[in-house]
Write a structure and sequence with these properties.
InterPro entries: NAD(P)-bd_dom_sf, SDR_fam, TIC32. With 325 residues, the protein is of the alpha/beta class. The chain is built from eleven helices and ten strands. Helix content is 44%, strand content 14%. The structure holds NADP nicotinamide-adenine-dinucleotide phosphate.
């Protein structure tokens, strides 16, 4: 798969390509035995992911910080699909307290958990610290998902063990992971304001998404757990993600219109990785346009992934965070 295939939509070895839609890549899949959490499922790629998962009869939990938008998303899904199973739960990924509260609320539902789609994200925001004192793009895109995943793992392991059905975790990364800071992850200066670059901080957080998926994948393989963890670049799609760079992105699109996807195409790689039976057992991979691709050398660096794992745990332990009531 190269730029030619991306532009023309020509299918790759998987039989799918950049022009494939989420519905096309899941045609014929019966997900009625699956429960899925989709973070940021109220808009953009996450909404389409939730919609198509529900269409394939999965029980979907939309995890969102804006409950009004999430309930509207749920109603839209139900309008087209009266038998859809969709629930909405509050989750603010840039708050450790909120992530813990979400896990408590999900546990109270006493549902199994087969699929975790770590989709939510922010892009190019001005320098800002989360309520836990951590740079916002890193806190939202990586750290919140890192904590969420760790806290949901026991449930996922239990589900995989008792049902014999493979669990799958999908991290939404980006091609932007290649444009991080010089050392990949700037551990010593994670919150530094004076040298902050909104673009590189986004790249850093998306690099962290791949490193997290790869490190978790290795750990689960070591334990012999029946859960795969992969990351994806969805393509370039005009969504509310661009809210901090609307003019820049609209101008960029004028010159690169041939590279852009619509939202149904943007959700295809996530759905392919989450549901395609041919991907059984495949873990620690990176997918673009529904085909495996090699990410950057930093993204493949096992030492960096291990260091990020320890660093993330220390950040969470060190944050002066009140426990969720
Ligand atoms: N669109 C692209 O071209 C593109 C390219 C590469 C990668 N991606 C990745 O794809 C994923 C989905 O992006 P999208 O394009 O679909 O953007 P989007 O429509 O803005 O969706 C992102 C979702 O994340 C939610 N979110 C943001 N901060 C959150 C927080 N603190 N807690 C909980 N939810 C939060 C947003 O909720 P609010 O509405 O409340 O903000 C929104 O529902 C992101 O991870 C993004 O990095 C997108």
């Amino acid at each position: 798969m190269g730029i030619f295939s991306s532009v023309t939509g020509r299918p790759g070895p998987s039989g799918f390509g950049s022009a494939s839609t989420a519905e096309q890549v899941t045609e014929g899949v019966d997900a009625s035995n699956l429960t899925a959490i989709v973070t940021g499922g109220a808009s953009g790629i996450g909404f389409e992911t939730a919609r198509v998962l529900a269409l394939r009869r999965a029980h979907v939990i939309i995890a969102a910080r804006n409950l009004e938008a999430a309930n509207e998303a749920k109603q839209l899904i139900l309008k087209e699909n009266k038998t859809a199973r969709v629930d909405v739960l509050k989750l603010d990924l840039c708050s450790i307290k909120s992530v813990r509260a979400f896990v408590d609320s999900f546990s109270a539902l006493d549902l199994p958990l087969n699929l975790l789609i770590n989709n939510a994200g922010v892009m190019f925001c001005p320098h800002q610290l989360s309520e836990d004192g951590i740079e916002m793009q890193f806190a939202t895109n990586h750290l919140g998902h890192f904590l969420l995943t760790n806290h949901l793992l026991e449930k996922m392991k239990h589900t995989a063990r008792t049902t014999g059905v493979e669990g799958r975790i999908v991290n939404l990364s980006s091609i932007a992971h290649i444009h991080s800071y010089e050392d990949g992850i700037r551990f010593e200066e994670i919150n530094n304001r004076s040298s902050y670059s909104d673009k590189r901080a986004y790249g850093q957080s998306k690099l962290a998404n791949i490193l997290h998926a790869n490190e978790l994948s290795r750990r689960l393989q070591g334990e012999g757990v029946n859960i795969t963890v992969n990351s994806v670049h969805p393509g370039i799609i005009m969504t509310p993600l661009m809210r901090h760079s609307t003019l820049l992105m609209k101008t960029f699109k004028l010159f690169t219109f041939w590279m852009w996807k619509n939202v149904p195409q943007g959700a295809a790689t996530t759905l392919y990785v989450a549901l395609d039976p041919k991907l059984k057992g495949l873990t620690g991979k990176y997918y673009v346009d529904c085909n495996e691709m090699k990410p950057s050398s930093y993204a493949r660096d096992e030492k960096l992934a291990n260091k990020l794992w320890d660093f993330s745990n220390k950040l969470i332990d060190g944050a002066s965070v009140p426990k969720a009531e």
